Amino acid sequence: MFISEKEIEIRYAETDQMGVVYHANYLVWMEIGRTTLIEDLGYTYAGLEREGYLSPVIDLSIQYKASMKYGQKATVRTWVESHGKLRTMYGYEILHEDGTVAATAKSEHVLVKKDTFRPVSLKKVHAAWDAKYNEIARVQG
To answer: Which family does the entry's similarity section mention (predicted)?
Structure first.
């Protein structure tokens, strides 16, 4: 299984009055993790958009385990949990510097044509990218 890692410096603007990271910022970090994973594999989400495709989130779950605070560094670990004909599920761990798990999450996405929002198979758009996702998916379909 291929796992991408990205370090995030927690900024003051990402915290609440108690200095704890506001829960919605974990979603932003997950997006950064997905983008990094895609780039680590040699592709770009921006390139996919230029070609007329989008990959919206259709489901998301997150479990918060241990709060993070301003001044800390978080590591976002991202992988392809599963990949099918139309849906891709990404898995995430967000870790403290000492390795303590701050949060775990999964997000499910579909690939759609930008102009019609009709689902399309990644295999039809980028066969090599599709093959790579099938190769590295944690759960083999």
So the answer is: Belongs to the 4-hydroxybenzoyl-CoA thioesterase family.
Confidence bin at 1 (pLDDT 50/70/90)? confident
Per-residue pLDDT at 140 = 72
Q: Which domains does the chain have, with CATH numbers?
A: 4-136 (3.10.129.10)
For residue 45, what are its two tokens?
């989400």
Residue 93 identity (one-letter amino acid): E
Which pTM value belongs to this model?
Answer: 0.95
Say if residues 82 and 98 touch (Cβ distance below 8 Å).
Answer: no
Neighbours of 64 (CB within 10 A): 15
**Nearest in space to 133 (alpha carbons), one of 44, 56, 58, 37:** 37
Q: Which are the catalytic amino acids?
A: 16
SS3 label, residue 122? helix
